[in-house]
Design brief:
Layout lengths: L5 H21 L31 H4 L13 E7 L6 E12 L2 E5 L5 E5 L4 E3 L11 E6 L2 E10 L7 E6 L2 E6 L2 E3 L10 E6 L2 E10 L3 E5 L5 E5 L4 E2 L12 E6 L3 E12 L3 E6 L6 E4 L3 E3 L2
Antiparallel strand pairs: 1-2, 1-5, 2-3, 3-4, 6-7, 6-10, 7-8, 8-9, 11-12, 11-15, 12-13, 13-14, 16-17, 16-20, 17-18, 18-19
Length: about 290
């Protein structure tokens, strides 16, 4: 549940286990023998005193207070905060209901999550007329909210995509695919300032003044809306000699020129500006030069 009463339930469970442990160590008192006074009543945290507020991510507490824009039964993208961290998971869900202005969602496996703020729930895009080789925004359990290229598309079967995994091109079946979004809009990849350069992340929520961005590490950062950059979509085909901006999480975007196509439409070798050595990049990390 998000948010939930798990601290209360956990405290009750732990207290029960502790009492049972003491009984097991001491043994069961014989009949008609005074076993002493009963143990004191456990002191349980009240809902108001539980740690659920303290563990609630700071970024989630600053989300804009918006009314739900989706209806029960709708298929949506949602970003669910991970308790105790500034990270979150992005996924595809079905809206089960709306309670007190918050959403109750269910994933593909039937697992539910409740109390999700409307600001991080967005209607999923239509699959549209996709074709093999098309660039898509997709979701799978191991590929949440990523850009990939369709590898296999056959009626009645799961869509297969090729994606980057730590510098290796892999193929997997996905649960959802749609054309990628462009501009400073939720579910689009945007640029944001970081350490003197431009970094890249998935925009999960947007207010009149700020944007909530999931970084490559999975953390959520809040940036002023005016500082966010609309990134062009990766090109369908790239050739040697093309000027590009290449992204890596440690360096942000750097200008460079493609020197070699390693895997057609997927992976390229780029000579970066300055004295930096050539590096290999997946297509989703390359955008046209300014």
């Amino acid at each position: 549940m998000f948010p939930s009463r798990w601290p209360v339930r956990r405290a009750i469970a732990l207290t029960t286990l502790a009492i049972c442990g003491v009984a097991c160590q001491q043994g069961t008192a014989p009949r008609n023998v005074d076993a002493g006074p009963p143990p004191p009543e456990p002191i349980l945290p009240s809902p108001a005193a539980s740690t659920e507020t303290a563990s609630f991510p700071e970024w989630a507490g600053r989300l804009p207070k918006t009314a739900p824009t989706v209806k029960p039964g709708a298929r949506v993208w949602a970003t669910v905060p991970q308790r105790g961290t500034e990270m979150a998971s992005v996924g595809i869900y079905t809206v089960e209901g709306i309670y007190d202005g918050q959403l109750s969602l269910t994933d593909k496996m039937g697992q539910g999550v409740s109390g999700v703020p409307p600001a991080v729930v967005h209607l999923a895009g239509k699959t549209g007329k996709l074709a093999e080789g098309a660039i898509v925004l997709c979701y799978a359990f191991t590929l949440p909210g990523a850009l990939a290229r369709i590898a296999e598309l056959e009626g009645g079967k799961e869509i297969q995509v090729r994606y980057d995994w730590a510098g290796i091109t892999k193929k997997t079946a996905i649960y959802h695919a749609e054309p990628p979004r462009e501009g400073v809009v939720p579910l689009a990849f945007v640029g944001f300032p970081k350490a003197g350069t431009t970094s890249r992340g998935l925009l999960i929520a947007l207010s009149d003044t700020h944007g909530w961005v999931q970084t490559s590490s999975g953390h959520i950062e809040i940036h002023e809306g005016s500082a966010l950059e609309a990134l062009p979509l990766p090109q369908s085909t790239l050739k040697a000699g093309a000027a590009v901006r290449a992204y890596a999480w440690a360096t942000g975007y750097r200008a460079g020129v493609i020197t070699k196509e390693l895997e057609p439409g997927l992976r390229y070798r780029v000579k970066l500006e300055g004295n930096m050595a050539e590096r290999d990049y997946f297509f989703s990390s390359l955008i046209p030069s300014r």
